[in-house]
Amino acid sequence: MPEPLVLAVAQPLCQAYDVDANALAHAATIRSAAARVVVFPELSLTGYELDAPAITVNDARLAPIIEACAETGTVALVGAPLQGEAGRSHIATLAIDGTGATVAYRKVWLDTTESRFSPGEPAVLVVDGWRLGLAICKDTGIAQHACDTAALGIDVYLAGTLMLPEEAAIQDARGRRIATDHQIHVAFASFAGSTGGDYGRSAGRSTIWAPTADVLAKAGPDPGDVARAILG
pTM for this structure? Predict the structure, then answer.
């Protein structure tokens, strides 16, 4: 077994479209989280603003996050609209560490309102021997996605999500189901506060579950909250 993994799920306050301000908020969260891996919500760098300009992994505005990761030894999983190949764009998870940013995952199961984006494929990120299966929001509600990702051989299923407050129970049920169905740790970083797409409020309550579906850590409903657990 790999060494224990310190994992955090974060829900920083997000300024609509403002990648500069949000990168600074992400950096502050990384510094305070004291975790090897910090997971952020869906589209955390822009908010759920589906017309936000897509970025690339070389975007200079990511520099504060890279610097924070270099200082703390963190891998940050950040949500962003990604400029892909041949003019395609994706709702993506970027893996950022002290050396820079890479594309870790592109959302597979898109909502009808997300038609400007193209789907990706199941993916795994390896950190310190831990195999992290990645997901974004709607993916977590599709049993096939968890099955396809688990088939890649994973220890943890991680997702950045965005849910309405009244959907918090649905989010909890999804996390427990994935944990028990596949006997893996599950962690959701859930958007808190207001954002686009008619989300005047969002659920927050980011959670980390054990393979037994027991809650290891849970944030509250407010922006700025972080939940942290040691796996292994």
Answer: 0.97
